[in-house]
Amino acid sequence: MFVASIPSPDRGVWYIGPLPLRAYGLIIVTGMILAVWWTAKRYGKRGGDPELLYDVAMWAIPMGIVGARLYHVVTTPENYFASPESMLRILKIWEGGLAIWGGVFFGALGAWIAVRRAGRRLGPVADSLAPALIMAQGIGRWGNYFNQELFGSPTTLPWGLEIDDAHLPAGYASGTLFHPTFLY
Question: Tens of pLDDT along the chain (184 residues)?
Fold first, then answer.
C-alpha cells in the first residue's frame, strides 16, 4: 500500500526586518483583490460602471474584517471575556480569529452603504459579487494550511495532513493525519 501525507509548513510568518508577513493575511488579501477585480468585470458586463466596485470595496472590506472579528469574538467568548486582560486580545487580530459569517454580513452592510451613497441598486452588485465571494472564501481557506487550523477529522487516506505537535488537538497522538478540509 502506498503511504503518503501532506506536510504542514514549518512557518506561516516571515519577517522583512521587523515587519511580519503572515501567509494567512497575504492569502486573504489575494482573495479580496481577485474578488473585487472579478466583481468589477461582471458588473461592467451587466451594464454597470465597474469603477463603482472599487468604491464599494472601500466600505465592504474594512467592515467585513471588523464583522468577521466581532463574530469570532461573540461566538468564542471564553477566549476574550475571562478577565479584563483577556479582553485586550479582542484587538489582536493577528493572533487569529475571523469568522466568515460576520465578514459576509458586515461586508454586505458596507456594500449597501456604498451603493446607496452612489445612488445605485444593491441587487446587480450582489449578483455580480456572488461567485467572486465564493472564490475569495475558497482562496482564504488556504491560509488555514499555514496556520495549521480548521482541518478535518483524522484519516488514514494518502492525502492526510500532518499537523505538528504544537497545533495538534488534545487527545491525538503525534503523527496523526487529518483531512485537509481547507483544500476540499
Answer: 456 899 999 899 999 999 999 999 999 999 999 999 999 999 999 999 999 999 999 999 999 999 999 999 999 999 899 888 888 899 998 888 889 999 999 999 999 999 999 999 999 999 999 999 999 999 999 999 999 998 999 999 989 999 999 999 999 999 999 999 988 8
Closest CA to 99 of 57, 133, 141: 141
Instruction: Classify residue 99 as left (phi > 0), alpha (psi -120 to 50) or beta.
Output: beta
CB-based contact 104:64 (threshold 8 Å): yes
Start-to-end CA distance of the chain, whole Å, equals: 23
Nearest 5°: the CA angle 176, 174, 27 is: 70
The answer to whether the pTM exceeds 0.70 is: yes
Calpha distance 138→140 (Å, rounded) = 5
**Size (the chain), residues:** 184
CA distances from 50 to 19, 64, 93, 116 (A): 34, 20, 31, 16
Contact status, residue 178 vs residue 140, Cβ threshold 8 Å: no
Distance CA 162, CA 148 (A): 9
Amino acid at 2: F
What type of residue sits at position 155?
A: T
